[in-house]
Amino acid sequence: MTSNPPSLRPDLAPRASFDGTAPRDGQPTIGMVSLGCPKALVDSERILTRLRAEGYAISPDYAGAGAVIVNTCGFLDSAKAESLEAIGEALHENGKVIVTGCLGAEPEYITGAHPSVMAVTGPHQYEQVMDAVHKAVPPSPDPFIDLVPGTSVQLTPRHYAYLKISEGCNHACKFCIIPDMRGKLVSRPAAAVLREAERLVTAGVRELLVISQDTSAYGLDLRHAASSWKDREVRTHITDLSRELGQLGAWVRLHYVYPYPHVRNLIPLMAEGLDAAGGGILPYLDIPFQHAHPDTLKRMARPAAAAAAKTLDEIAAWRATCPDITLRSTFIVGYPGETEAEFQTLLDWMDEAQLDRVGCFQYENVAGARANALPDHVPAEIKQDRWDRFMEKAQAISEARLAAKVGTRQKVIVDLVEDDAATCRTMADAPEIDGNLFIDEGFETLKPGDIFEVEVDEAGEYDLWGKLV
Length: 469
Prior knowledge:
The protein contains 12 helices and 20 strands. It has helices at 38-53, 77-93, 107-113, 126-136, 178-182, 190-202, 238-245, 267-271, 294-300, 311-321, 340-353, 380-403, and strands spanning 29-34, 57-59, 67-72, 97-101, 119-120, 160-164, 166-167, 186-187, 207-211, 226-229, 232-235, 251-254, 280-286, 326-333, 357-362, 409-417, 422-426, 437-439, 451-459, 464-468. It has a 6-stranded parallel β-sheet with strand order 6-9-12-13-14-15.
């Protein structure tokens, strides 16, 4: 059985899962290391899809690969260090390394540490990555096999997939450099997203995880223009897109949803529940609140700072419309200038909000972020103390809310079947970042992607146990 320790960074994607197909004789092979968030994982999938279409085999490790692509993360200084370490390991094990991703927006930072890398490209610069691959390992396609359109490469298990609906972000939060690395908001037309979603569901995906940097702002750059989808026009707007996605027969889970007023229009879609095909918008919202004290939020330059006092009212309204809704969020403790009183406000807010799933970062300086220049940085030992106290609070809330589910029936999806148990997730749990539900009796015939109902008979701090009904 696998469980999710609460110390995991809540921004990380699941570990990339490769299919391990053996290359044919003489087939050029590329290795891939994918770091960072789910948005980066989608970038890796798109690169690998292009490579496979051009006749390259994909290696899950360094052995036998003609070159290795390292898709980096630059969100935090600790993530940058991890990326440099991965690049160094790839150079040591293989020697031919192409770097892409968010850290690639700072090429001098990379080449200063690793001058022998073959090329450095920024995030979602697919053409430049392909050019570098062609130079390092020339393609050698088999015209009878490789140049036929195939399915896209997935780095997640076959039964769930990330669906990226936009790139970039228009906000200027002082602790974040994502807009500098990934640019301003660029939304995909609704019809393009829906075509990809339908293709994924047709290929067997049972759960679509909608991601972007700012899901609530989807379509704002296009002025919510409509595009043709089957027999109708669909606006490039998160409410309209969600309504259409919910009709494809898969679970649809919304991530990174800022709490703008129009988010309340999503809640009735969640309250409708699953349709006869087992699909619909799950009663789940992943909202990056970051803090609860208005002064802290102002120093962060958060877009919702002015509405901080109304957030609890919004949460109450969402729960009134959809009592089963699960709310997940992430927070930052130890932000520059955070006083003990401001931190206590956050703890008190947590008591009132009773969020189901919570992740937390200790504030870190990030090169290029405006927060670095703020006064009154919090000492490391105080940040650690506040993180400990925050997680203790979050754990107690999680434990109590899960205990209330004992005796209830929950729909679950199977992620993994091992010798001792099946690891599943309820509709309240996203992969990796939330909890699991374990079944340790009568699970032998289950397989990943199965969706069915269980009765919860035990609860822990973050996970549940249940039996088939």
